[in-house]
Design goal:
Elements: H1 9-41, H2 44-80, H3 84-119, H4 127-138, H5 141-156, H6 161-184, H7 189-214, H8 229-261, H9 265-301, H10 305-338, H11 345-359, H12 362-378, H13 382-407, H14 410-433
Length: about 450
């Protein structure tokens, strides 16, 4: 556990971010290795199937994960205020919510997966493998939510190292099982899906055993959970806008995928691989945002607004330096990275174009996420939701449809930085207005915020 209310702000955020970055690297790494093994050893249709499944999975889990982020903010604010009893009740409450959600999402996802793929216009040669991969993956939702819940709780307590260790275990297991199931046993895309859910299950169970034995606050027992309605309302109030924001992103990704589907299997396969690379490279900027949320939550819970703002400036600096370096690397080596996923020259070319266009504007993305992280930590999650909705549905999707009709598939890629720029402006204006102040769960008696 880490107390963010004392010590150098920049140092604290950097120390907290590094394990988070490493953890997310490992998490994204096993998704990338999945795609590389599938693309190399099964084919571009299977590569497209994995990529086509991701937006649907994201859409199914986004609302729940948003509420989980709200719980993380509530935990960080209570922990900053040294209210440990409320911290424990929040932990119990969010795990009950995750358990019920995992069951519901598995049932709904399996029931409607084929209809969703048909609605998105997925090419027929990809459909069978996409259905097989998605339906197997959905059976692992309980493990996914369980591990996500543990990670959210630990982040709220200022602990980013413990989730890293569990993620390393999951990544190593996934690589071994991928190689075994796909290459040795020849199970095809089903093997890749089984490798993923077994790896997540192993990480979750290992985390439960470890925390029950070692952690001073977190004790996970399905027989002793207590659901606190008032705390859950706080989680909903803070987390639901973030959940809607994530849902907007998820459904926006499905809309983008439907546009890409219209350009055929090569475009779908290229987008699937390039999106994995893009997500991997953007991940540190997203991670800095998550670290900032925990930092801001604790400091505003302790009524240290000046420290919270200093943390934002430090995060903007870290993200800017990283994104300049990342953009240069992707521009120089995008083609070589794409060739790891497939040997098809048409797929490589389409993916290279995507990476070149999108990576040139990573700086906009990092600034947008830095302000998002600050506002989430403050509990002011409505405006980030509005900014995301505007960026996606008012700008990116209409522009993608229009420009791709004029210049082809590259028009879809150019629409992304345009949307990001508008979303960034909305967040910046709101932050400057100061209307986010006073949104914390904790209140100081008889003191004006």
């Amino acid at each position: 556990m880490k107390d963010f209310t004392v010590g150098k702000e920049a140092k604290l955020i950097l120390q907290f971010s590094v394990p988070l970055v490493l953890g997310n690297i490992f998490q994204n790494l096993y998704n990338i290795i999945d795609s590389i093994i599938v693309g190399r050893y099964i084919g571009k249709e299977a590569l497209g199937a994995v990529g086509a499944s991701f937006p649907i999975i994201f859409a199914l889990i986004s609302l729940v994960i948003g509420v989980g982020s709200g719980a993380s903010t509530v935990i960080s604010q209570y922990f900053g205020a040294k209210k440990i009893g409320e911290v424990k009740r929040t932990i119990d409450t969010i795990f009950i919510f995750f358990l019920g959600s995992s069951i519901l999402i598995t049932i709904l996802g399996i029931a409607f997966s084929e209809h969703i793929f048909i609605l998105l216009g997925l090419p027929e040669d990809i459909m069978p493998e996409a259905l097989s991969y998605l339906n197997i993956y959905l059976f692992g939702m309980f493990f996914f939510f369980g591990f996500s819940g543990i990670s959210s709780i630990l982040r709220g307590l200022g602990d980013s190292k413990t989730p890293l260790y569990f993620m390393i275990i999951a990544t190593i297991n996934n690589i071994i099982l991928d190689l075994l199931f796909v290459i040795v046993f020849k199970w095809g895309i089903q093997g890749a899906a089984f490798a993923t859910i077994l790896s997540e299950g192993g990480a979750f169970l290992t985390a439960v055993i470890y925390l029950n034995k070692k952690h001073p606050i977190i004790k996970l027992s399905f027989r002793k959970y207590l659901f606190d309605r008032d705390i859950f309302k706080s989680c909903i109030r803070i987390g639901l806008p973030t959940g809607f924001q994530q849902s907007f992103v998820a459904f926006g990704m499905m809309a983008i995928m439907s546009i890409v589907n219209g350009f055929g299997t090569n475009a779908v396969a290229a987008y699937s691989a390039a999106m994995r690379i893009d997500s991997f490279v953007k991940m540190p900027a997203i991670t800095f945002s998550s670290a900032l949320s925990a930092f801001v939550g604790q400091n505003l819970g302790a009524f240290e607004e000046k420290r919270a703002k200093t943390g934002l400036r430090a995060t903007l600096l870290f993200s800017t330096i990283y994104c300049i370096i990342a953009s240069l690397l992707i521009i120089l080596f995008g083609k070589h990275i794409m060739s790891l996923f497939t040997t098809d020259p048409d797929v490589i070319k389409i993916g290279q174009d995507y990476l070149l266009i999108v990576s040139s504007f990573y700086l906009l993305f990092s600034v947008m996420f830095s302000f998002t992280g600050f506002l989430r930590g403050a509990g002011a999650t409505l405006i980030p939701m509005i900014a995301t909705f505007t960026a996606l549905y008012i700008v990116r999707i209409p522009v993608a449809i229009f420009i791709s009709g004029l210049i082809g598939v590259n028009g879809i890629w150019w629409a992304e930085p345009m949307g990001t720029f508008i979303g960034m402006l909305i967040l910046l204006v709101y932050y400057r207005s100061g209307k986010w102040k006073g949104k914390v769960v904790v209140r100081k008696s008889n003191v004006e915020m």
